Amino acid sequence: MTYRVIQWTTGTVAREAVAGILGHADLELVGAWAHSEHKDGQDVGELCGLGPLGVTATRDKEALLATPADCVCFTVGRNWVEDPSETFGDLLRILRSGKNVVNLWWPTLVYPKAQDDDLYKELEQACLDGGSSIVTVGMDPGYGTAGLALSALALAREVSSVHMYQFMNNAYWEGEGITKFFGFGQRDAARSPILAPGVTTRYHATTLHLLADAIGVTIEEIVEDHTLSYADEAFDVASGHIPAGTIGGVRYRVKGLVGGVAKVVVEHVEKLRENDFAELGFAGDGYRAVVEGLPGITLDLKISSPAGYSGDPVAVASAMSVVNAVPRVCAAEPGVLSLLDLPPFPSRNPAAPRL
């Protein structure tokens, strides 16, 4: 069966999603929404550096939702940090239109029933109204942390704790957004939005609850802490200049406590230089899941690219975590899904086009 897919946005990760959709044996690209006026009416393939595809991007949401399609690949950026209401409304309209959604936007939606009862009820009702389903994946929150931990837990007989890590070198991300988000190049941690009290909890709480439900415990309290690395000399990265003495690396932890003990932990190691936080023994970009128990289990997931590939392999992995899920989500009963609900969704892209 071929599933017809609409791509929602045409940014960096979205371009990788389009390439993945084109290469997937069971998917067909039938439309795309673009935010920018200058992209309206342009060929999606040309916007994504793939050559003409005969599929035109549009800013007309209602016309796009009238297009016959089975699923929307929703890859809107980080506007949830400031105000998610408009984009959440778009998501509800898509679901009510009868189209399934595979989603990368807003970490809360990885496991929304654990975070906000009203939010979950709105999503669930939209799914029931449209006969549609939604799953949110990505890398973290998503497959890199929760998915990897669930794989490790399949081998455990006793579980004392689950610790999930993301390791990321952000030196190659263009645009000032990544710099502002983590406070890179700032002298004061108060200038880092991600470290404002409660932000990392809001970002990762649903992942903690998903894993807690998986192992059969109830989180009683969530606490957060962080460690910073400062640049010992000035240097430049794709997003700008990092003066000496400013933040060059951020390591933060969000812990779900049970009986005062950290039972489930998400930790991010976000840096601009490879030698920062070297004590953790993880080179390059990737993820780690550590299950303390019997047996003790550590799984490391490394993200890399083949020789000659100039794109970002993490963006590819993030995009494919939802693209590959499309057939499973379309086949599911209507409702809000998570990684706990879906069987594995391996790639069926023997030779997807490369950007």
Give the topology, please:
Elements: E1 3-8, H1 12-23, E2 27-33, H2 44-47, E3 57-58, H3 61-65, E4 71-74, H4 85-96, E5 100-103, H5 117-130, E6 133-136, H6 143-153, E7 158-169, H7 177-182, H8 199-215, E8 221-230, E9 235-237, E10 240-242, E11 247-258, E12 261-271, E13 286-294, E14 297-302, H9 313-323, H10 326-331, E15 335-337
Parallel strand pairs: 1-2, 1-4, 2-3, 4-5, 5-6, 6-15, 7-12
Antiparallel strand pairs: 7-13, 8-11, 9-10, 11-12, 13-14
Helix pairs in contact: 1-9, 4-5, 6-8
Domain 2,4-diaminopentanoate dehydrogenase C-terminal: 207-343
Organism: Parafrankia irregularis
Protein name: 4-hydroxy-tetrahydrodipicolinate reductase
Major beta sheet, strand line-up: 3-2-1-4-5-6-15
Order of helices and strands: EHEHEHEHEHEHEHHEEEEEEEHHE
The proportion of strand residues reads: 25-35%
The CA-CA distance between the termini, in Å, is 26 Å
The CATH C-level name of the largest domain is Alpha Beta
- Helix coverage percent of residues? 25-40%
Residue runs with pLDDT of under 50 for 5 or more positions: none
Biggest β-sheet strands, sense, barrel: 7 strands, parallel
Q: Which structural class do the helices and strands define?
A: alpha/beta
Count of β-strands: 15
CATH topology annotation of the largest domain:
Dihydrodipicolinate Reductase, domain 2
Q: Nearest-angstrom radius of gyration? A: 20 Å
**Average pLDDT, to the nearest integer?**
93
